[in-house]
Amino acid sequence: MRLPAALTRILVPIDFSPSARAALEYATFLAGKLDAELEVLHVWEPPGYLGPDTLALLPVGSGEPAWEQTRAEVQRELEQQLARAVARPRAFSVRVEAGEPSDTILRLAREGGVDLIVMGTHGRTGLSRLLIGSVAEAVLRRSGCPVLTIRVPTRTSRDAVPL
Asked: Is 9-44+59-153 in CATH node 3.40.50.620?
């Protein structure tokens, strides 16, 4: 991996989870401090129908109501973050893409000349990670640029009890 002389393009994929919101907050701050461009991405994985012999994917194309509603939600999330931002990015954009999340993130990072990916991680372990998978891990393993992961610890019953 070749490190860039300066960070000028930051990609932040969001899925509306607490860790993704924290990643957006951090990426917004970082882009503002470094005078970098910020690209906010939401990857929508189309639902599928598993029949007796087939898997039929039902992609939603740009311009359809569900697609535009998702884009509007991503835009609102970014605008809320920018309203609270200490430092604002030089420029920003919002994208909504359909596809497998890690593949789409990596493709857009490569095609867009991204210098850094900032993304949330749910911190799953064990069986839940095996069954659900980890988009952040797949991106970390295959990315051609640095990846910064942000994890928001979840509270457990043990956290609520003072020692």
From this structure: yes
